[in-house]
Amino acid sequence: MRILAVDVGTGTQDILLFDSEKEIENCVKMVLPSPTVLVAQAIRRATARGEDLLLTGVTMGGGPCVWAARDHLEAGFRIYATPLAARTFDDDLARVEEMGVRVIGEDEAGELARLRRIEMRDLDLQAIAQALAAFQVDLELDALAVAVFDHGNAPPGVSDRLFRFEYLAERLRDGQGLAGFAFWHDEVPPRLTRLQAVADTVDERLPLLVMDTGPAAVLGALEDPRVRAHDPCIVVNVGNFHTLAFHLSEGRVVGLFEHHTGELTREGLEHYLMKLARGTITQQEVFDDRGHGALVLSRPTEVPSFFALTGPRRRLMAGSSLPIYPAVPHGDMMLVGCFGLIRAFAIKSPEHAAEIEAALGGA
């Protein structure tokens, strides 16, 4: 079985062409600039040329592309955007227009063919296929699995940080577990507009699993035998933009917190990790510190002494006094989210579970 797993982050998009007939180490892997970085580069080139822009496509991840758009507007140039593309900047289109972006309909966009056009999307299968074709690898797939970070479509006046974290807490309180953050094409909750945007760009005939990046990374970290062997344990993913930590005990999530990586120091992250381990961390303290929040589902009977670390910004914990273990599932930390996607696919697709698990080494 061939599954293309794409883990879309703020800095990189990490890609695994999983093939159940190959050793996992021999499957094709790529680490490429993320879509938002590529769009940001295109916007900055337009700024340098003094060009107005037309943004079309669907809602995608923000960060670098939003910063580039603000700089473009501040330089005195115009940006027009169709509604779905504009929601990359904010789900509230009134706020997008306040930013200076002119939101227009699809018909009006068709009349602006003279403008430099940039398509907004988190998943570009054509570009991935072209990259693989350069090395004579075809993209014949049995399924596709994609992870993106989704704040959700927060109602007006509601913090998107709080809205996202309430969703995480809701799924865990329902006993969904880590795989509960993965959805088939037709299962995506309406509030998850970025996941839905990915689904809308994929042919419905191709089986598609979409998942949040944080839980995918933690699920992938458990592919490392040393991580899996420790119970209880803390698994923390220090991403380029967000840091998410889960407290796992007896196969269940008993606590978590999520913060912005750029707001954390090593000492601050150590502080939160120890409070998570002891079950004393609170929603309010993390939120007040510009993070998303925290949740304790049950107070631990045993405080973990094993902290598994993954993510591209893991060096934040260099020199930590905590017993840190750098997780390397299948020998590749950067593909941790992709391995989580493949594991989630096996959990959600029992008919393929045995074949996938055999290729993963029975993990």
How would you describe this structure to a colleague?
The strands form 3 sheets. The chain has a 6-stranded mixed sheet, sandwiched between helices. A 6-stranded mixed sheet has the order 14-13-12-11-15-16, sandwiched between helices. Strands 6-5-4-7 form a 4-stranded parallel sheet. It is an alpha/beta fold and 363 residues long. The chain has 3 domains: 145 residues, no CATH class; 86 residues, Rossmann fold; 102 residues, Nucleotidyltransferase, domain 5 (2-Layer Sandwich), CATH 3.30.420. β2 and β3 form a beta hairpin. The mean pLDDT is 94. It is built from 14 helices and 16 strands.
Describe how the helices and strands are arranged.
Blueprint: E1 2-8, E2 12-19, E3 28-33, H1 35-49, E4 53-57, H2 64-74, E5 79-81, H3 83-86, H4 93-99, E6 102-103, H5 106-110, E7 116-120, H6 125-133, E8 143-148, H7 160-173, E9 182-184, H8 193-200, E10 208-212, H9 213-221, H10 225-229, E11 233-238, E12 242-249, E13 252-260, H11 266-278, H12 283-288, E14 293-296, E15 307-310, E16 324-326, H13 336-348, H14 350-359
Parallel strand pairs: 1-8, 4-5, 4-7, 5-6, 8-10, 11-15, 15-16
Antiparallel strand pairs: 1-2, 2-3, 9-10, 11-12, 12-13, 13-14
Helix pairs in contact: 1-2, 9-13, 13-14
